[in-house]
Amino acid sequence: MAKKVVATLKKEGGVKYAKVVKAVRSPKTGAYTFKEEIIIEDQVKDYLAK
Fold this sequence. Notes:
Elements: E1 2-9, E2 17-25, E3 32-40, H1 44-49
Antiparallel strand pairs: 1-2, 2-3
């Protein structure tokens, strides 16, 4: 239950970054919390697969 945010962060002539929001479920209460991270665009699939 994660999604890639539409906004992509770019630097001219540099590495492309993406902001990723991932829903994480709490084992005790079952409630969801959201983790936001800015990672390199090439690593998005690996991050969401975790």
